[in-house]
Amino acid sequence: ESAALEAEPLALIAGAPAVQAHAVLTDKVRVLTRDTTQRVVLWDVMRCTVVREFENGRSLDSALAELHVERAVPTWFSVDTRAGDLTICLDERNAFAGLLYASDVGITHNVAEDSTVNMGWNMLTTLFARWVEKHRRVEPRDGRQANGPGGAKAVVPIVPLEAPPNSVTVTISDGGRVSVRATVGELRNVPEHKVPHWVSEALFANRYFTREKAKVPFFVMPDSSRSLPTLIDGSSRLEALRILRVRQVVRYVAQNLSTPLVIDGVDARASDVAWEEHIEVTCNDKVLHPDTDLYSARLLVWRNASEDMVLVYRRKERPRVSE
């Protein structure tokens, strides 16, 4: 006689909840995900790890609204959650478009105020750190001597990786085709021939290309209604890194006025002054926060791609003290 089938399972092995939805934050560093248990968590893409878990019942849209900031950063990665996990996708066309100040990604110790981080380069060098050690003595495919293969020194990343080995999947595309698909822990074992040349160049030679313009041209002019002079050389058209903050524009203006700015009877150029307390900058009649960068100001406030952005500086009005 055949044995009767069990009506109930002897044991249940529960799998990990699948990721159902995601949202990339405007800083292009953090990603929100929601899984099948409705758990909403916040990921740090640079570190490939969860940095916050929201309380039960919190919706993805509510968490996104709480974390939203008015900021524009070029897209340097894409996200795919169709397989039920968080997959970070890097492509040569935009992998190196993201640039931030080190302080924006939590790096403040022993770095200069204006130190920058290319997020795609940093992520690759961190993810492939052990792979680089493994392939250090392999010659470059094109036969050139590069940093890395041949015994040369590899690049040291600035943002440390904190991810558990299987927490995030990474895909890397070459010519529109995915050539690498692996979890963070599996990347060290990717065959050398699978790693695209553009990734090897970034890892071993610190060479990479981006189509995103690094600098933004703009005009700086005085507000005729406030008592501040023109710039000392008479030139108002400038060009600077797209991540330059408005507070640095204010500092430049204060130090290059044709007539020195006097604060409490002292020439401000010769003293340690918080310039943004005395000078403000507007764009399209909107006062810009000192931490706003040029790229965000151009895309979110100026909103005119065909003409150079115009920034207007003026003396900041002191709040009136009621009697």
The count of helical stretches stands at 6
Q: How does the overall form come out from the CA principal axes? A: elongated
The ordered string of helix (H) and strand (E) elements is EEEEHEEEEHHEEHEEHEEEEHE
Strand arrangement in the largest pleated sheet: 12-11-17-15-16
> In whole angstroms, how far apart are the ends?
101 Å
Task: Give descriptors for this structure.
single chain, 323 residues, alpha+beta, 5-stranded mixed sheet, 4-stranded antiparallel sheet, 6 helices, 16% helix, 25% strand, elongated
Quick rundown:
By secondary structure, the protein is α+β, with helices and mostly antiparallel strands. The protein has helices at residues 60-67, 119-127, 129-134, 197-205, 246-255, 294-302; strands at 19-24, 30-35, 40-44, 49-53, 78-80, 87-91, 99-101, 116-118, 169-174, 177-183, 215-222, 237-241, 262-263, 266-267, 279-283, 286-287, 309-315. 16% of the residues lie in helices and 25% in strands.
Your description of this structure?
The structure is a single chain. This protein is an alpha+beta fold. The protein has helices spanning 60-67, 119-127, 129-134, 197-205, 246-255, 294-302, and strands spanning 19-24, 30-35, 40-44, 49-53, 78-80, 87-91, 99-101, 116-118, 169-174, 177-183, 215-222, 237-241, 262-263, 266-267, 279-283, 286-287, 309-315. The protein contains six helices and 17 strands. The longest helix has 10 residues, at 246-255.
Secondary structure layout plus pairing:
Layout: E1 19-24, E2 30-35, E3 40-44, E4 49-53, H1 60-67, E5 78-80, E6 87-91, E7 99-101, E8 116-118, H2 119-127, H3 129-134, E9 169-174, E10 177-183, H4 197-205, E11 215-222, E12 237-241, H5 246-255, E13 262-263, E14 266-267, E15 279-283, E16 286-287, H6 294-302, E17 309-315
Parallel strand pairs: 6-9, 11-17
Antiparallel strand pairs: 1-2, 2-3, 3-4, 5-6, 7-8, 9-10, 11-12, 13-14, 15-16, 15-17
